[in-house]
Write a structure and sequence with these properties.
The relative contact order is 0.11. The protein is mainly alpha-helical. β2 and β3 form a beta hairpin. The protein folds into 2 domains: about 200 residues, SecY subunit domain (Preprotein translocase SecY subunit, Orthogonal Bundle); about 180 residues, SecY subunit domain (Preprotein translocase SecY subunit, Orthogonal Bundle), CATH 1.10.3370.10. It is about 70% helix and about 5% strand. It has a 3-stranded antiparallel β-sheet. The protein has a two-stranded antiparallel sheet with strand order 2-3. α10 packs across α20 and α17 packs across α18.
């Protein structure tokens, strides 16, 4: 691994891409500390500190995680990349129900660029809406338990906040696209990963306080418990890697076709059906729905609604059960959106492909749907387990959620998935370089 890392900086093009990626991510992290004008940062930090002590959390906590802590400081990148993620999911769902978008998706690169442009427009609209309501929310001292967050409320502050936060989101989106084109890895995913990884120092600091190696009387976690946590962390990472990389390979045989003097087809290949097709999308949907009552409860002072929201907080059995069911449902829902067995079967039939033992056409589509339904169940159950595992760690080992969140949930799935994808791209560059260098430095024995 270390030799591959050293070799990465010996290749000029790969070195340039890595340095550009690191520089753009550094710019993003610097922007996460540039405050929005007109905000009392100390009062806002106190509010989020109180929010972190609540057992359930709110949608603001999700936004804060994806923004790398920029939301709790309300910096120029406070919205993070969440509007772009929401816009991408909306466009992806609409592609399955609107024929015009579905036709664009099948046009290749030109269609992808048009859909990407529509995604940018929807991102701007969502950013404007979210930033405006955030400005209204900040102006109300009653929601902050008497803390005065906005120094000079009014339309001037609202318009300034709207412009600042929307521009910040657009700039983050541009950074992600520049990483995609000039750097290495998926730019948007790397931006999210950088925000999640930025929480590691704070988690380590909390863990160090709990261990208190120089003060046994203040120690809350014993060394044996720390060893158990380390083993669990390694086990969770390995399990996430196995499931996210897991595939069911469906063999496909292409019949030979003679066109003129040429023979086409005749080869064997396979269709890789992923065990975890939905991944983190299912958790995001489930979190948004189950935390919505708790978020509304902070705005609606209704006793009945408050009691209902208190039943759906982290740690309660009903919360865990509903959360797991929602994740399994959205795993199937998202898989049904992105995987169309009928189109796949028709394309195979058009080009002379068939699954051995299965007739082309409708029987092939039914077979693919049968296989996908069953492997999705295994992936959905695993995703649900990973999502609720931090709650189990909190209750069992008595650690704060910031520490427990690295043992599962959205963060671990994103970090592991993005790291694997980035390492694959770096490896492809290394293999390509070795292949080119082999052809330049000599000849194959027996050939000229």
């Amino acid at each position: 691994m270390f030799s591959a890392l050293v070799n990465s900086f010996k290749i000029p093009d790969l070195k340039r891409r890595l340095l550009i990626t690191g520089a753009l991510l550094a710019i993003y992290r610097i922007g996460c500390y540039v405050p929005t004008p007109g905000i009392n940062g100390q009062a806002l930090a106190e509010f989020f500190a109180r929010l972190a002590r609540t057992p359930g959390g709110t949608l603001l906590g999700i936004i804060n995680m994806f923004s790398g802590g920029a939301m709790e400081r309300l910096t120029i990148f406070a919205l993070g990349i969440m509007p772009y993620i929401s816009a991408s999911i909306i466009l992806q769902l609409l592609t399955a129900v609107i024929p015009a978008l579905e036709k664009l998706a099948k046009e290749g690169r030109s269609g992808y660029e048009k859909i990407n442009q529509y995604t940018r427009y929807v991102t701007v609209v969502l950013s404007i809406i979210q930033s405006f309501f955030i400005a209204l929310w900040l102006e109300n001292p009653a929601r902050f338990e008497g803390l005065r967050v906005v120094m000079h409320p009014g339309w001037g502050f609202r318009l300034l906040t709207l412009l600042t936060l929307t521009t910040g989101t657009i700039f983050i989106m541009w950074l992600g696209e520049q990483i995609q084109e000039r750097g290495i890895g998926n730019g948007i995913s790397l931006v999210i990963t950088a925000g999640i990884i930025s929480r590691i120092p704070a988690a380590i600091s909390q863990l160090f306080v709990l261990i208190s190696p120089f003060s046994p009387t203040r120690r809350q976690i014993q060394p044996f418990v720390l060893l158990i946590m380390a083993v669990l962390l390694v086990g969770v990472v390995l399990a996430v890697i196995f499931v996210t990389q897991g595939q069911r390979k469906i063999p496909v045989q292409y019949a030979r076709r003679i066109v003129g003097r040429k023979i086409y087809g005749g080869q064997s290949t396979y269709i890789p059906l992923k065990v975890d097709t939905a991944g983190v999308i299912a958790i995001i949907f489930a979190q948004s729905i189950i935390l919505f009552p708790a978020t509304l409860a902070s705005f609606i002072p209704n006793p009945t609604f408050q009691r209902l929201a208190q039943g759906l907080v982290r740690g309660h059995l009903i919360y865990t059960f509903i959360y797991a069911i929602l994740i399994i449902f959205f795993c199937y829902f998202y898989t049904a959106i992105v995987f169309n067995p009928i189109d796949l079967a028709e394309n195979m039939k058009k080009y002379g492909g068939f699954i051995p033992g299965i007739r082309p056409g409708t029987p092939t589509a039914e077979y693919l749907d049968f296989i996908m339904t069953r492997i999705t169940l295994a992936g959905a159950i695993f995703i649900a387990f990973i999502a609720i595992f931090p709650d189990f760690i909190m209750a069992w080992l008595k650690v704060p959620y910031l520490v427990a969140s690295f043992f599962g949930g959205t963060g671990i799935l994103i970090v592991v998935g993005v790291m694997l994808d980035t390492l694959k791209q770096i490896e492809s560059h290394l293999l390509m370089h070795h292949y080119d260098g082999f052809l330049k430095t000599g000849t194959i024995k027996g050939r000229r």
